[in-house]
Amino acid sequence: MKISIQSGDFDLSEEVKAISTDARVGAVASFVGLVRELPMTLEHYPGMTERSIAKIVEEARSRWKVMDCTVIHRYGALQPNDRIVLVAVASAHRGDAFAACEFIMDYLKTRAPFWKKEQTKEGARWVEAKSADDQAAERWQAGFAEPKKLG
Hints:
Layout: E1 2-6, H1 12-19, E2 27-34, E3 40-44, H2 48-63, E4 66-74, E5 76-78, E6 83-91, H3 94-111, E7 114-120, E8 123-126, H4 131-141
Parallel strand pairs: 1-4
Antiparallel strand pairs: 2-6, 3-5, 3-7, 4-6, 7-8
Helix pairs in contact: 2-3, 3-4
């Protein structure tokens, strides 16, 4: 399991390769989040952020058969189209990999201590949490979105 909070970019191909070396891995599901149209600055609470993400990953591992996982989240000044986050999950089967990847990403948006400040034409503004992110995380609490039995 790799959790990294870093200012520098990451190489998606290298990160996926690193979690798929075990011959028992049959699936890797990944999500890469990009900065949209406005430059932004991301701040975090070092130590606390990594512990929060580790708890999210451990919860995913308790629900699905996760063989390995990488979560990378960037901080600092980011420009449109920069990669901001990577969640990659390795499993024997795609159903577990897809579900765990989506679960981790949904909870990253609501539980991980990051603060975003967008740079608009009118000046900088802190970004509020979106209700859609809370709703996405809540569906997991209700037992919704359990993985389908896929090959």
